[in-house]
Amino acid sequence: MNRKLRSVIYVPAINEKAMRKAATLHVDAVIFDLEDSVFPEQKAQARSGLAEFLTKERASFQGKYLVMRVNADDTDYWKDDLAVAVQIMPDAVLLPKVTTPQHIHDTYVELSAQTRQPPKIWSMVENPLGILRLESIVEQGKNSGLECLILGTNDLVKDSDIDPGKDRCNLMPWFSHVMLVAKSFDMAVIDGVLNDIKNTDALRAECEVARALGMNGKTIIHPAQVETVNKAFSPSEEQIAWWRKIVAAYDLPENANAGVISLDGMMVERLHHEIAVRKLRQFEQDATA
After folding, report:
1. Strands (DSSP E) along the chain, which ranges?
2. Nearest to 119 by CA among 95, 151, 150
């Protein structure tokens, strides 16, 4: 996915004040939630309220990627949610509780029956079965518009009865599997939320690990988390300077055909040059987005 998704904030679709606030935040994406944060008796109200709100206020979210989390396809709300998605046309529809490629395919078919250019599809990864089958979900889902995975860590812990451990160390094998699949199929991955909204140190630590694993960003639930997450998933000045130094070194005539060079005491190979070029290109694209 060729856009930055550092900070992705959930907002309840039933809460107009929170939705208005999200429009003012320096986040890369907003998820309007019709699922977990909306009680069953509020579903219809949230659905119609979101449609009315975005019809009037869409322009205030300029530059942000807009995602609508619908209810699962085995609920009574799924088809009505998708009908509203076609009405308001978010950039993507986020599916919860995905355990088979069929969930992605059915959603694509339902959306495509109502519009020629349906929204993209995002998928929650939030239960053991979904992780076990993730390879087929992603490989087949790409044919149905799947472009991003979001870790639902709270549900994953609940459904697996696993103790996350210090710094979520017990979840690392699960995360590694998700990233192996995602990188194999060029799929974006967004980390799960941190509920302790005042614990900036824990948030920064989770972001650092997620970024080291290759994730694109992190989902958040409070405006106070935005700055920390954006900074954690943005390259530092030192990183940018190093990438530029590598590119400049290989641009020198004497290194035109060199496979390996010495740079500031480091052995640098052509693969490092390829990485630096890719990283700088992405940085420049993000800077102008």
Report:
1. 7-12, 29-33, 65-69, 92-95, 120-125, 146-151, 188-191, 217-220, 260-263, 266-269
2. 95
**240 vs 282: CA distance, rounded Å:** 11
Residue 28 included in any domain: yes
- 8 A C-beta contact, residue 54 and residue 88: yes
Q: For the chain, how far is it from start to end, CA to CA, in angstroms?
A: 14
Q: Is 77 a member of any domain?
A: yes
- Which tokens go with 50? 């979101």
Mean pLDDT, the chain, integer: 95
Same domain as 280, residue 212: no
Digit-coded pLDDT (tens) for 141-155: 999 999 999 999 999
Kindly tell me the sign of the dihedral angle through the C-alpha atoms of 274, 135, 124, 59: positive
Note the pLDDT of residue 271. 93
Q: Residue 24: name the closest of 55, 63, 68, 52 by CA.
A: 63
Rounded to an integer, what distance in angstroms lies between the CA atom of residue 182 and that of residue 267? 29
Against a cut of 0.85, is the pTM above it?
yes
At residue 14, the 3 state secondary structure works out as coil
Domain encompassing residue 281:
237-288
- Is the pLDDT at 19 greater than 80, yes or no? yes
**pLDDT given at position 8:** 98
